Amino acid sequence: MTRPTIVAHRGASGYLPEHTLAAYELGIRQGADAFEIDVVPTRDGVLIARHENDLSGSTDIAQHAAFADRRTTKTVNGHEITGWFSEDFTTEEIKELRCVEPLPGRRSAAHDGQYAVPTLREVLDLRASLSVELDRPVGLKLEVKTPEYFTSCRLPIEDLLIPELTRAGVKEAGSPVEVMTFELHHLRMLRTLSVHAGMVFLVEEDLDLPVPGEGGATYGDLLTPGGLARVHDTATAIGPGRAVLFPPSDSGALGEPSRLFDRAHEIGLRVDCWTFRAENHYLPTDFRVGQHPATLGDMAGLVAAYVGAGLDTVITDHPDRAGHPPRT
Would you state the pLDDT for residue 1? Predict the structure, then answer.
């Protein structure tokens, strides 16, 4: 079986608070080929590593009395959210926060309060230093979050991202850094701005959702042969959620593989997949171990099923449980 690329999702986020320098480093030391980072902007135009711009769930911001009056409600990509938002804080203020475990019911919160929120520049520097220390290229999958929304906030992410990629020397073809987003039109924009690195079009598990900026086309529409050709004009890979590639059976067990593996490969697109999590709660019933939802099940077996069907890249919270030895 061909060894897939293993990506530490938000770092080794099954073990440490997500999107911390410590989690990224742990994922690489566990044998991952790359780690994944999501970026959102601050008020002063610095990209930071957070899964979403609402800071409530992944930091201790609620404990900072000085920021209490900045709790607000916003509509982000059609969803009304109440919390504290990255675009309302300076980088200096963000650095006062500490990261916490966003899934404390299933994962340890023992490391809450230990780690600061990193900037993209700090993450790019970590990637470079690990590559030198380990004498192997360390990859980075960089997900741009809701770019259309941030443009409406007068914080266009491309204006903040490209200088950082240029500084790090990673925006050319063959770069160890790839850009990912659920908004295909944003990848097109980056291409016009001379970003030649690999690009991944992420695919929502709800295939009936419209793709922003695509004239009403849904994610499902862009997975047809004609749609994939349209994606291939810009992207080097697709990144569907797990259920798109193996629709679940009625019993909750793993279903049959989709033809999407073959269709994507035939047109020259790599297939990446999110997110493999080892806890029983996230696994098909036939890969669970015991009954407790937080018990770690047979994620390696699940990964093997996907790789056997043609998966190229495994994006996981638990890179050490992906069932594949580190690349040498």
Answer: 61
- Alpha-carbon distance of 297 to 154, in angstroms, equals 44
Backbone angles phi, psi at 89, to 5 degrees: -130, 145
Entry field: residues in the chain = 328
CA proximity to 260, closest of 282, 238, 281: 238
Other beta carbons within 10 Å of 239 = 25
CA 315, CA 239: separation in Å to the nearest integer? 9
Report how far residue 137's alpha carbon sits from residue 127's, in angstroms, rounded to the nearest whole number.
9
Tracing tokens 């941030």 back to the chain, one arrives at: 150
The whole-model pTM stands at 0.97
Nearest to 280 by CA among 289, 271, 272: 289
Report which of 91, 26, 101 is spatially closest to residue 58, judged by C-alpha positions: 101
Q: Where are the domains of the chain?
A: 5-321
Q: What is the pLDDT of residue 246?
A: 98
Residue environment code for 141-162, b if the CB has 16+ CB neighbours within 10 A, otherwise e: bbbbbbbbbbeebebbbbebbe
DSSP character string of 282-321: GS-GGG--SS-TTSB--HHHHHHHHHHHT--EEEES-GGG
Residue closest to 190 by CA, chosen among 215, 218, 159, 164? 159
Class of 5-321 in CATH: alpha beta
Could you give the CA distance from residue 264 to residue 96 in angstroms, rounded to a whole number? 44
Q: Are the beta carbons of 35 and 28 closer than 8 angstroms?
A: yes
> What pLDDT was estimated at residue 2?
78
Distance (Å, rounded) from C-alpha 328 to C-alpha 326? 6
Q: Express the helix, strand and coil content of the chain in percent, nearest 5 each.
A: 35, 20, 45
**Each residue of 205-222: pLDDT tens digit?**
999 999 999 999 999 999
Query: Residue 23: its pLDDT value, please?
Result: 99
239-262: pLDDT as tens digits: 999 999 999 899 999 999 999 999
The residue type of 53 is: N
Place of tokens 């040498």: 328
Report yes or no: 35 and 8 within 8 Å, Cβ to Cβ. Answer: yes
